[in-house]
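Dear colleague,

Thank you for sharing your sequence with our group. We've completed the structure prediction you requested, and as agreed, I am returning the results in plain text so they can be pasted directly into your records. Please verify that the sequence below matches your submission; if there's any discrepancy, let me know and we will rerun it promptly.
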Amino acid sequence: MGIASGDMFDCPNCAGLTLRAEEHHGVWTVHEAKKASCPIGNEPVFLPDDVQPGDIIECHGAKHRVTYEFGSYALVKADR
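Please find the predicted structure tokens below.
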């Protein structure tokens, strides 16, 4: 069983850390997949790589604002 570029996997030595493997021109790298818990579905939501605090993400039919504090992302219900 191999890993393909774009595959995600949980780090067996890191609490809750999900990594994404990517290959570009024969060079493999891994980086942390950005994620937050959905406040409605109470499940992890994978965020876009370019997400920034303040961005709006839709999940379970509701809009949530992305926050980042203490080294992790969170979603809070957006006012609009």
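Summary note from our side: Residues 1-33 form one domain.

Kind regards,
the structure core
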